[in-house]
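User: Structure tokens for this complex, please. No commentary.
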Amino acid sequence: MTASEQLLLAQQGFMAQVLDDDAPAPADWPADQNARLAAGMDVYRQNYRSAVVEAISSTYEQTQKWLDQGVVDGAFQRAAIHHVIAHPPAGWTIDDVGAGFETTCLQLFPDDRAVAELAWLEWAMLGASRAAEATPLTPESFAQATAEFGDEDWAALTLEFVPGIAARTLEHDLHAMWQALGSTPFERPPTALEIPRGCIVWREGERPTFLMVDAANVQALNAARTGMTYAEICVMLAGADADEQALQEAAMAAGAMLGQWLQESLIVGLNA
Amino acid sequence: MTSITPFGGFGLGLRKTHYSDFIEGQQPVDFLEVISENYMVDGGKALRVLEDVRAKHPIIIHGVSMSIGSAQGLDSDYLDALKRLEQRIAPLWVSDHLCWTRTSAHNSHDLLPLPLTRDALDVVCANIDRAQSHLGRPMLFENPSSYVTFPQDELTEWEFLSEMTRRTGCYLLLDVNNIYVSAQNHGFAADDYLAGLPLDRVRQIHLAGHTPRGERGDFIIDTHDRAVCDEVWALYAKARQMITHPVATMIERDDKIPPLGDLLAELEQARSFSDEALAGASA
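Assistant:
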């Protein structure tokens, strides 16, 4: 075994001890120093735990508030510890410790799925907050760019969205939850939506923001993000076996969505 | 590899709570140090703030995740992201710690100790060569605080650092608080540590507070959550007497961060200790 391989093994053993109280101490630790070494190791273990739990807490401030004020005090801390035990961090940025916390919330709070949706929102907002800069198209610049478009150009149109944008359908009213979390005193609002809605998250200037929209809007936006053309999106919105009238209505709906995306400064480029 | 010209001055670590103080006002600091990883992003407010502050003050970028002691080598994505930041900010210098933080499977996000062996030295030097080559400039590495030593240690920490700088051409970020913490935890003399270092390679000094023995068990813990204590000021004065070239001194605070005015007052103390030490050295 090379020196580098020996060091690698030692580091893997040390890391195992940092992550897990029950991991065995290295065999070459002298017995007469074991208590001292174990106490030193405990400092590293505590440093690790406090750093990663604090990182999750920093990313999920609103989820923490929701859980601790609305459910059981300390619920967030327990969920964060559960998350790092189940998913010890691997990446170099400590922000990524919170990756997948939405799924952890879904597992730990299956009867309160609003928690997981709120966690999704905060994770998406973190992603938007550090995304690359881009200059969005204004409605005027878009109109100028498409002024000479014929039917074929419109049909082939694809869009590019601001970096860091995220969108999904939701079963809970994140807008009402967010407002309640910003109010004093905190009062838990009704959260369940009668029909699923959509949520779009992006960065407006320097501030991450979100908007609740129709579920179809999110479906179209996510399709456009994958490169689907404007014509294909219209067909998707019209549904299978759509007649001419349904196609016309879908085209109008797609037009309205496109107008909203432009108004909200979500589009940075187009290709036809 | 180019050299790093000594830069004398007194600075602080830029923390979020003080963003507006530095953007809106003119603060009496000679430089600011930022945690690299907080700005190794594609865009957003943090980068904009850094660029605004960069227009007023020289910047040092100080990392916590390079993992220069990793037996498996360095993370290429990390190096690329660090280089992008370095090119964007044009810092005075780039620094990290003599430690390791990760294996291929996990990252501790803590500065873990290396066995002070010749084999570990080979690994560290190879990694430093790669990092400096990737960045196209020499780096500074900081002496860590530690809570365990290894039975297989062959060198003292100052011997390890000396050999590391000799072999790689890197420079030192001397954390005086860390010397004090490790000396207390492991029972060596801080004076021996200072005397054994190649002080001509020191370009920056960190000063910070620590949690005293007894508050969190039997160790002194490097917590950066309070003011610099008298013993560390005394060690700083001693180091300042021994380092004859200009050096950048910085107060680090990462937890329980007070108003900027408190840190500026502490920085003024550093100026006074430094002035007195240098006057004493030349007398």
